[in-house]
Structures are given as structure tokens and as C-alpha cells.
Amino acid sequence: MNTRGLRSQLKDSVPVTGMGQQVGAYGVQDTLRSGFSSVKNELLPSHALELSEKNFQLNQDKMNFSNLRNIQGLHAPLKLQMEYRAARQIQRLPFLQSSHLALDTLKGNDESISFEDILNDPSQSEMVGEPHVMMEYKLGLM
Amino acid sequence: MATLSVCQPQLGGFSFENCKRNAVLEAEVTKLGCNVPSARKTGTTICGVVFKDGIVLGADTRATEGMIVADKNCSKIHYISPNIYCCGAGTAADTEMTTQIISSNLELHSLSTSRLPRVATANRMLKQMLFRYQGHIGAALVLGGVDCNGPHLYSIYPHGSTDKLPYVTMGSGSLAAMAVFEDRYKQDMEEEDAKRLVRDAIAAGIFNDLGSGSNIDLCVITKGRVDYLRPHDMANKKGVRSQRLIRPVYAVTGNYKYKQGTTGVLTKSVIKLDLEVVEETVQTMDTS
User: Fold this and answer.
1) Chain A partners of B109 at a C-beta cutoff of 8 Å?
2) HEC assignment per residue over B164-178
3) What Pfam families does the record point to (chain A) (predicted)?
4) Is residue B44 annotated as a catalytic residue, yes or no?
5) Which of A67, A98, A126, B173 could form a disulfide with A92 if both were Cys (CB 3.0 to 4.6 A apart)?
6) Residue B219 and residue A81: Cα distance in Å, rounded?
7) Which of A12, A35, A119 has its CB closest to that of B12?
8) B65 forms bridges with which residues in the sheet?
9) Dist. CA A78–CA A14, nearest whole Å
10) pTM higher than 0.80 for the full model?
11) Please, which residues bridge with residue B78 across strands?
């Protein structure tokens, strides 16, 4: 993947504090792409669980990797993260549904069911992402 | 649907998009004096007890929606695995979805380990899930089953804390049921004694708590056998004046008829009436 793609990967990681707003060119909030904004929307989460749920998978992975590093040494999380990164690249373009089969098998999600599988199934969402916009976002051109 | 354009692919799970809108709506509605619709709860009495060979779980069968009885005969003892059952109190939808998810996870886990699932596994899965949602999932559960290590009984609270005890009660009628347990529980009871104890505990909850009512369901789990007795006892039969289950002697009925033979019979004469058929009409039914 080229360096521009790497930059977009950084943009995808969710900061722990705050909700993060779409900042366009010149550091000003991007009204065309992300709608009107209000200070209240950005500062406070609308539900007590919103932030913790957004970051839940990331926090779990961080905790598991640091445990693994303490028990087995640095090589264990490094190897696992390399496999995760490789599996994450086997995907279709962002506006199509990818099955994430390899990634799910590595993470162990193929042997468990949770609310992510039952509620809000992405393949049946009401909104379809616009292909050009999603590709530009992924490649970091936006 | 709050964003103008979608840049990243959507994730599954809970969506908090409408929370702010709901908060605004609720404020407006309370200003007008109306009430926001509330979730259906199972104001409940559920309990469980460990006896010599296994577990007896008991539950009432009333589901309430505020001050109204929503379901007169709902089933509160949920299946988790062939040797593990779970009673649920709290929000009805939360208990049902939670127990179904854990049941599916436990089935996948037991297929992957090819062993009968353990009660401690179900307990840990439930407590991790409930803690993750910080009590917003209102499910208070009594989990019981028999596995390779013997019978186990757990109580699980909505925020994710669990207790492993020989007898537990949950729900709005839990104090009434616990009073019966504290009085009559003994270690290593026989199955019939345990069933009677659980039935009396649930009956105490039914008669002394508004949120519990209707029938008593029992589930007896032993090694290799599960008896799901639904209904085990109908405490509130319609049309019959209720009888006190706890005191067995004087049953108060509203029946004022005298028994046959109360007064002595002196003579008896039977006179047949001769009836002759005057008119006979046939009316066909429209069975089309």
C-alpha cells in the first residue's frame, strides 16, 4: 500500500478522548461532507456507552497484546499483529461487503455471537456509501 | 442517518444515533404531561436451590408493563444448554436476548471443545457481557445446572457481579422468597423436599408481591435428566376462590351448597310427564 494509504489508516484510528470531527482543508470544519456541527455534539457523547462501545474492540486488543507481551515476550504480539495486518488487506473495496473471514478466524470471532452480528447488520443498512467518496477517504485524498 | 455522507463502512451492533433526539423528545413529552412508553418488565419472583443430586429452579409467570399485567403466563426459565437453565428477572427483552446469545455462544463453545458445557463458563460469559454494558442491559439472572463437577447455582446482577450460593432469589418478590428459604433450607435435601420448598418460596412471592403472580414453573436438573414442569402449580385459578397453599387445613371456598345427604330423605316418588311432539322444524346451517 502506498504512503497515502498509510495516512488514511492513521485517520481511521479512533482517539480515546472526544468524538472527533471531520476537519477539511485549512483546519476548518467540513460542512459539505459532515453536515452542520454544534459544540455539544462534539464534546459530550449522546449515551454513556457510546465512547466505550466505539473503542471496545481496540481496548480489548490493546489489553490482550500487552498481556501477551508480558507473558511471552515481544515477539508474540508482533507476530500476531503482522498476521492481523495481512488478513486486513484481503478485502474488497470499501463500499462493497467483505466477509472478513480470515480476520474473524484469527480473532476468534467465528466461534462467538454477539450484538454486532444480530443488530444493525451492515449488509442491510439503509444508507449505501457513495463509492467515489469512500475510495477517496480510504486513499487519504479527502 | 445523521451524517451527510458515509465515509467508512458501517459497523454492526448498537447504534447511538438517535439518543440525543430521544432525549429531546422525552423532555418535550414530559412538558406536555404525557408519559414515554416504558419497557415491559418481569416484576418477578425467581429462585433456585441446590439439593442432593442437582438443582431446582423456580419462577412465577407474570410480566408487567407499568401497572398492567402484560402477560399472564410468560415463561421465565430459559434454556441455555441441555444441562443448564437460567431464570430471568428485569426487562423481559433483555433477559430473553441475553440468554439466547449466551446459549448460542455456549453451543459453539461446546462444539469446539466437544464437551458438555460447564455452568462456570456460562456464568463468566454472562458476567463479562453484562459488565461491558454497565448495567444498561437490565437482566438479573439465576443460573443453575449440573456439569462434570456437580450442581452449581449462581445469581447474576445487571451490572455484572455474580454470587455462587446454595440458594438464591431474585426479582421484586425476592425478599418474600428468601424469607421462606432462610427458614426451611437444609443441606442435601431430597428432590421432593426441594421442590416443595421452591414452590412455597415462589408462592410467598406471588401472594405478597404485586409484580409476581399467576402460576409456578419449576425446573429440576439432575445429572442426565431435566424435568421442566410448566405449570407445576396453578396458584391463581380463575373462577375458584383461592386457597391458602401454606396452611393445609381450612380451605376457604365461596361454595355454599350443602353436601348430598345433609338432610334425611323420607319418601321419593317419580312422575313421568307424557310429552307429545307437536311441531318439528329443521333449520339448515349455512356451511358454505
Assistant:
1) 111-112
2) ECCEEEECCCHHHHH
3) UMP1
4) yes
5) A98
6) 47
7) A119
8) B68
9) 21
10) no
11) B86
